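> example.struct
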C-alpha cells in the first residue's frame, strides 16, 4: 500500500488516568475513503482514543497524523479545521434552537463575514447567510428532516436528533468523520437508515472512523476493523478475518459459543 493511500496515522497512543492505563501503545493506519471501525468491550479505551484523536484529551505518549499534519497537541477546533470532525454518543445540540440554526452552526466555521458584519446585517453577511442556507438545506433534504427545519431540536425524537447532529457535522464539509456509537438509542429501522447514510458518506469520498457496539452494523458496513481490549490492540483486519479471529472470539465475543 502506498503512503498516499493513508489519510490518518495513529502511532503508539498511550493514556494514563492516574494508575489506570486506559490506552496502551495503540497504533494503526486509516486509508482514505473507507469505513474503519473500532470495537471492544466496555472499558477497552475506544472513546478515550477518539478523544485523543480529536483533541479533547492529551495523550500521555504517541502521535496522530492526518494527511501528514500532526494533530497531537491541537485543540478540538483546530483538529476540525484540518477536516477531522468528531460526533458524540451523548448529543451536544442546542435544544432551544431550530434544526436549521443547529445545522448552520456547523457551516459557520466556513464563513468569513465576521461577527461585526453579522450584527449589522451587512451585504457580505447577507450573502453568506444565503450561501449557508443553500449549502445546508440539501443536507436536511438528504437526511429526510427538511420538514423539521423550523422545529426546536429539543422537541424532536432521539432518532431525528441524531440526524440533526449528522447534518451539523456534514455542514462543515469534513474530509474525515469520527462517529462515537452513532447507533446508540436508535431502533432497528433507524439503525438501518444510519448504515445507509454512513455508506453513502464513504462513497462520496469521505473517510469514516467508527466506534460502535452494534456488531451487525459494524460487520455490515466496515471495510476494516480494529479490536481493543483493556487499552491494547488485539486484532486488525477485514470483517471476515475479525469474525474468525480466536483472540476476538475468546476475549471480546465471549468464548467458543459466541
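> example.seq
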Amino acid at each position: 500500500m502506498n503512503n498516499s493511500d493513508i489519510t490518518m496515522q495513529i502511532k503508539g497512543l498511550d493514556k494514563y488516568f492516574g494508575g489506570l492505563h486506559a490506552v496502551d501503545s495503540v497504533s494503526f493506519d486509516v486509508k482514505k475513503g473507507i469505513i474503519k471501525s473500532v470495537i471492544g468491550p466496555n472499558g477497552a479505551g475506544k472513546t478515550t482514543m477518539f478523544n485523543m484523536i480529536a483533541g479533547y484529551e492529551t495523550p500521555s505518549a504517541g502521535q496522530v497524523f492526518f494527511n501528514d499534519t500532526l494533530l497531537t497537541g491541537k485543540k478540538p477546533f483546530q483538529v476540525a479545521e484540518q477536516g477531522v470532525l468528531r460526533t458524540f454518543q451523548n448529543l451536544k445540540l442546542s435544544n432551544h434552537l431550530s434544526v436549521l440554526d443547529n445545522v448552520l452552526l456547523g457551516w459557520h466555521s466556513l464563513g468569513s463575514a465576521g461577527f461585526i458584519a453579522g450584527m449589522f446585517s451587512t451585504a457580505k453577511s447577507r450573502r453568506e447567510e444565503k450561501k449557508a442556507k443553500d449549502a445546508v438545506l440539501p443536507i436536511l433534504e438528504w437526511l429526510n428532516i427538511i420538514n423539521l427545519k423550523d422545529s426546536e431540536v429539543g422537541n424532536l425524537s432521539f432518532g431525528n436528533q441524531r440526524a440533526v447532529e449528522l447534518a451539523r457535522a456534514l455542514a462543515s464539509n469534513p474530509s474525515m468523520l469520527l462517529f462515537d456509537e452513532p447507533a446508540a438509542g436508535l431502533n432497528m429501522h433507524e439503525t438501518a437508515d444510519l448504515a445507509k447514510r454512513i455508506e453513502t458518506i464513504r462513497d462520496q469520498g469521505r473517510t469514516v472512523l467508527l466506534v460502535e457496539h452494534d456488531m451487525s452494523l459494524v460487520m455490515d458496513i466496515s471495510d476494516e476493523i480494529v479490536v481493543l481490549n483493556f487499552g491494547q490492540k488485539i486484532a486488525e483486519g477485514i470483517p471476515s478475518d475479525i469474525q474468525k479471529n480466536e483472540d476476538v472470539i475468546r476475549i471480546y465475543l465471549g468464548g467458543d459459543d459466541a
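> remarks
The CA atoms of residues 13 and 62 lie 4 Å apart.
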